[in-house]
Amino acid sequence: MRKTSSRIKTSTGDRIFDYCNYTFMILLIIVTLYPFINILAVSLNNAQDSIKGGIYLFPRVWTLDNYRYIFRESTIFHATLISVLRTVIGTVTTVFCSAMVAYTLSRQDYVLRKFITIAFVLTMYFNGGLIPNYLLIRDLHLLGSFWVYIWPGLIGVFNLIIIRSFIENLPESILESGRIDGAGDFRSFFNIVLPLTLPVLATVALFSGVFQWNSWFDVFLYNSSHINLSTLQYELQKILQNSNTTSGTSSLDGMISGASGAQQNTVTPLSIRATMTIVASLPIIMVYPFLQKYFVKGMMVGGVKG
């Protein structure tokens, strides 16, 4: 048996398959990483030199002036703090509330489960519109408040469906054993359901975290006049808009000192967009590896039932 298995592993067909598989995966990695590496190279390159094009994997003229231009704004660091608070609080509350509602709707003995599920799903297809939403937020006294980032998205219907499908796939015998031991609904939810649904909760947390981190339009609608509630994405959007407005024909009017303090470099909208992309995406890229294994498992198991 050992000789047979050894002969199979070293056969010509297996070697060809391995080489083709390795080549394909390497090409896939290159295609996936190249756009990000290219944007990083542009962000680290001299803005005027970037206009010439021809930058692929490495900067042609190294500089940090693009990052200095963005971080010289006094509001950036406070806006980053607001974005972090919004992402953390919004993600935790959304995941927890969505999980509680999903657990309720997954119970077969709940009489209104179908009606409420349909009511939730309808909100994915029909929306009141921008003006009614604004009037609702105003009447709820959420304008100029940090909680306008949290309460409207407390329960995501898409996340709710994913979690409910995952819970429905759990063995019913586990919950029945908890009831035999005297566990009620709350104890079953906290002690049994939550630990078992960790993969799908991590998946939903990633979805919600990315959404909260990237949101800026609600800041523009509800808190644009409150600088203390501005987020990083909104501040970056204002910087980009300002660079597009003041660029004139081809260059930005704002000048910043170079590394030596003697030279000055013109920042262009192209360099600003590349730098914004790196600044905005880096936190998510750093978090994703820790949630990757849960993300894959949660999507596979949570998507079995609709």
Automatic annotation (TrEMBL):
It comes from the Bacteria. InterPro entries: MetI-like, MetI-like_sf. The chain crosses the membrane at residues 21-44, 76-103, 115-137, 149-167, 188-211, 270-291. Residues 80-288 form the ABC transmembrane type-1 domain. Keywords: Cell membrane, Membrane, Transmembrane, Transmembrane helix, Transport. It is found in: Cell membrane. GO terms for biological process: transmembrane transport. CDD domains: TM_PBP2. It is a multi-pass membrane protein. Belongs to the binding-protein-dependent transport system permease family. This is Carbohydrate ABC transporter permease.
